[in-house]
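Our platform keeps sequence and structure together, in a single record for each protein. Such a record has a labelled line for the sequence and another for the backbone structure tokens. Nothing more is needed to write down the fold, since each code stands for a local backbone conformation. For reference, a complete record is included directly beneath this paragraph:
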Amino acid sequence: MKILRRIGIGFVGFLAVAWVALLALAYWPSGIEEAPARQLAGPDDRFVTFDGLELRYREYGQAGPDRPTLVLIHGFGNSLQSFRLVAPLLADDYHVIAVDLPGFGLSAKPADFDYRNANQARVMGDFIRALGLDDVIVGGHSLGGSIALRVAVSEPEVRGLVLMNPGIINSGVPAIAQYYFFPMQRLLAKQLGKRDFRESMIKGSFINPDVITDEVMDNLQRASQSEGYLAGMTTMMGQYEAPDEEPLLAEARLPTVIVWGELDRRKTPEELARLEAGLPLYGHELGEDRNGREIPVFVNPLASFAVRAPGSGDYVGRAAIEAQRQEFERIRRGEFDGWTPQLLTHVIQPVAVFDGRRPLRAGHSVKIGEKEMGYITSGTSVPYARFYRSDLTETPSAEHGLRPIGLALMVGAMLVAMWVRMAGP
């Protein structure tokens, strides 16, 4: 017993010494002097203040009736410089605004602030209103994609969404981050402020690391040189949460584009399939035929095609299909404005192709037997795995793959296409 006691005391002593060493490292001067953000700003930087927060942004192009406003939100460890090359190109057709989130770039970095996604989305909504913007398309990359989704489903000024390899399902942050103890948060903040460490981290995300030039790193390092960086980033490091935005996909009932890098080292095709399957299957919302003429359409959710993702334990697209079912029931009860089902001449119908391999794409014909009944307005493929039943239990088989699914504009009011065997160009 005495030996065990001595071992225990020795171990506790070792932990105490290690913790004191960590504490010393955390509070040892970093050698980086912080300066007011405006002193570090360039000639193209603009600032706006609301609710005691000052945010930096840059503007490209002019607002106009035929030039929608596009607000771009960067990812973790980055800033509005993410869009330095693409924003000027988009400015030919859009009024583009790139913004630094609180805690990043040259935006404010208060120590007593909630840096979690929900609050960041609230701030982005306030930012949109502070600039007097309306009819906004919001786009986000990585962490910014998760925040952009929250903005899209909660802010009435938003009418479109662009998700660029979003961190909605997988943030890329190790789950162990939620167990960091004091003073690990401050140590991580100091580490992220070091140029060599940040450069290595950023370059590891690129197929071609040469795109991370000295100019890019100079821009990124202004964040750790700005006033409040260490205190603000320390707070942020202590607020890690696992991504929880996936259920919000079903609420994104607005035009949505997913931009995905096929060679991304941290994002998989399966993750893209889950994103696409989780979005509402409304597709052809403009109600136009192939000649651009307006027609009354109705989203019919009866032919649901949710499929099981291997190992998921649940149906991909379940939330979106359930939302459609509830919407259908609401309209069937007469709780709608304008149209009645009896007056509809066309139907937006979910379809699944059970004997196909390639994704459905807009323009493909939909046939029942040999008769063309409509055409695909939007489509994709989702992962599936076959299950078989035995004694009221479901057991997965070895068969799995990708199933083509899509939305089709079908002729005939309230037509339910239960057996779609062919879809081709």
